[in-house]
Amino acid sequence: MAQRLLILTFLASLAAAGAVPARAADSRTQAPPRAVAARGALDAEEMNNIGVFKRVSPSVVHITTLSVQRDFFSLGAYPDRDIAVLRIEAPHDKLPAISVGASRDLQVGQKVYAIGNPFGLDQTLTTGIVSALNREIESVTRRTIKGAIQTDAAINPGNSGGPLLDSAGRLIGVNTAIYSPSGASAGIGFAIPVDEVNRIVPRLIRDGRFIRPALGVTSGPENLAKALGAPKGVLLVNVADGSPAAAAGLKPFGRDRNGRIVQGDVITAVDGQAVADLDDMLSLLETRRIGEKVTLTVWRTGQTRKVTATLGSSD
Questions:
Q1: Measuring CA to CA, how many Å separate 3 from each of 9, 22, 53?
Q2: pLDDT at 221
Q3: Is the pLDDT assigned to residue 24 strictly greater than 80?
Q4: Which fold has domain 213-313?
């Protein structure tokens, strides 16, 4: 320690005598900052991006829950379409409504915007185009969601439930899923079209659930129709007593006392629209109302006929 102090004292003495040069930074003149280059006005596309974000971002919230008040089965939700409604206790002026657009007239190539909370990073804006229309994706209940919007706007975990907007800032879809082996954005995202959302949400708000119009039938597996030589459609294996299907005279396939197959009905179309399976039929019935009459095209033992049924409730 004594030796170290002697060395430091010696160096200090040399510095005082001018034998040791000062630090280089102290002997240089500080370089001035570079001049800021002027830029022109933002272009029209940039201004529109900024305008859409400023108008809509206050309507997009990041919700954190501290406790569960209602369980999954009593929440206002329709898992078949990946849509749910939450009630938030907040002042109305803090949650301005997004203008609702339409999805029926969208075109591939239109510019779109997504605002969400990817990976917890709230108020994130991504842009892209409508990459494709009328895609089919699978819901959490394994039902097929038809008519989905495909976009290359970056959709990541945390974007689900956020809005997909057109260039006017109108809601055209609700972001729901990505297609990616890694689970991160790969340029293929999907949104539920707003026309579908606008059809379902009022019913969720009114009833707390989506009550589907129903015929009161149970279908058999798809391969059963082929095995029995029946056409593609909804092969009936059960018709509930007192149901709309029973009132319309529909009969299920079954077996007689000797185990032989008793021919029943296969629904092949609803109001002239072909149905290949139960999922197709349910999707069509969801666009109708309870109490509405539908015309069913029915096949039985090689004969095709049309019958009218009044839709009941799925409850």
A1: 10, 24, 68
A2: 81
A3: no
A4: Pdz3 Domain (2.30.42)
